[in-house]
Amino acid sequence: MAELPIAPIDRLIRKAGAERVSEEAAKILAEHLEEYAIEIGKKATMYARHAGRKTVKAEDIKLAIKA
Q1: DSSP string, 5-65
Q2: pLDDT mean over 34-45
Q3: pLDDT class for 2, splitting at 50, 70, 90?
Q4: Confidence class of residue 1 from pLDDT cuts 50, 70 and 90?
Q5: In a domain, 43, yes or no
Q6: Which of 22, 46, 47, 54 could make an SS bond with 60 (beta carbons 3.0 to 4.6 A apart)?
């Protein structure tokens, strides 16, 4: 189960052009977004550690997204 709230996910889908969004659709997207965010976080953590830091910085996130 995703930790992301459903309401903001619903708004994102509507912002993309949907008139109506089922709760199940928002939940599925939330789960996938969370998985993607975790993968980015893992890569960013690896970059921070490689740089000798414990703190993940914006530059680490940017690198992780590009990788």
Answers
A1: -HHHHHHHHHHTT-S---HHHHHHHHHHHHHHHHHHHHHHHHHHHHTT-SS--HHHHHHHH
A2: 98
A3: confident
A4: low
A5: yes
A6: 47
CATH of the domain at 32: 1.10.20.10
Q: What long-range pairs does 29-37 form, CB within 8 A, spacing at least 24? A: 30/2, 30/4, 30/5, 30/6, 31/1, 31/2, 33/2, 33/4, 33/9, 34/2, 34/3, 34/4
Range of the domain at 21: 6-66
- Record the tokens describing residue 5, joined without a space: 């709230």
Question: Is the CA virtual torsion 22, 25, 30, 33 positive or negative?
Answer: negative
Q: Are 13 and 25 in contact (CB under 8 A)?
A: yes
32: phi then psi, degrees, rounded to nearest 5 = -70, -40
The amino acid sitting at 12 is: L
